[in-house]
Amino acid sequence: MEIKAPTPQIPPAVWTEFKDLQEWEKYHQERPEGDKHSALFESATEGVYNFPGGFVATGLADAVLNWARKSSVWPVTFGLACCAIEMMATFASRFDVERLGMVPWASPRHSDLMIVSGTVTIKMAPMLKRIYDQMPDPKWAVSMGSCANSGGPFRHGYHVVKGVDRVIPVDVYVPGCPPPPESLLNGLLLLQEQIAHFRQTGKRAAPTEKVD
Amino acid sequence: MTHEQARARIQERLGVAAEGEGSLLTVTVPPERWREAGSLAKDTLGCLYFNFLSAVDWKDQGLEVVTRVENLEVGLALMLKTRLGAGQSACASLVPLYPGADWMERECFDMFGIRFEGHPDLRRILLPQDWEGHPLLKSYAVDTPHPPYR
After folding, report:
1. Do A161 and B128 touch (CB under 8 A)?
2. pLDDT score of A20 more than 60
3. Could you give phi then psi for residue A40, rounded to 5 degrees?
4. Could you tell me the pTM of the whole model?
5. How far are the Cα atoms of A79, A96, A109, B7, B56 from residue B20, in angstroms, in the given order?
6. pLDDT, tens digit (0-9, with 9 covering 90-100), for B66-100
7. In chain B, what residues touch A123 (CB-CB under 8 Å)?
């Protein structure tokens, strides 16, 4: 009798089963550009704002909402390169971002902030865009380190995106190679300041033009 | 096998003199004897350890494929080189001899565009599959546009 070695059965790739997720992302990407809310909501808030004295109501509502938003910014844990070490140090007990209300969360679905920590290669950029698209609005992005800001030392290489603002809109740029935790904390405080002035009726800046 | 014996075997089988002193021998062969040099290194000289495989772009003098195999028992290291002609990008594959050359040759194909004939699965390994060009060639401009991100 011949004894045969068992043939390994390779299961299909996991992502082939995520039909609903793909459809959700398609719906997510089909929203109008630059519009963070529905047209009905925007027209209503614009109407209240333009009513005489209405700016008090919208300002108070914005202040309350922004206080809530800036007090619980949850960054998605997304480390790309050596800057991620400094980001982890910032998240850890010594620099403790939890006193700012930030909880590093391992899911983009529950996160408000993406800290792009490190070199974004051309191969990685679609995945980064996809994770950013998976985050619910309102969402913010911090570009951490020279590589994410402008390409850094790899700017003249062949495979690096020259600044992550060519892929997603960025709110705060943190310089450094890598930035120490104090710099990143300063950037996060600046971001909280920016969130505190976020207007419900406002428009966000578009990504910079792809030059050179 | 001593280093002198290895030197004599190389001279006898390949017809070229091995350069270098000590335990590192450098052998330059024409590309049509590349596979033969590999089988000599593995079967006759006992160089079972495949160290690395890479290439050098000498511009108008053509590409040069460099590999290093070692016999760890007697401390013999063999640097095999072959110079493909100008404009040539075809070379014999060493994968039937050294399975460890598989990914090295794929990387070499990825970066230099060298077609290794006889390789079982010659695809890009590091760059995306839709990448155009081979970036470590001297003729590749580093600011080659790659939409939509640069």
Report:
1. no
2. no
3. -65, -45
4. 0.75
5. 46, 58, 61, 10, 20
6. 999 998 888 889 999 999 888 888 899 999 999 88
7. 127-128
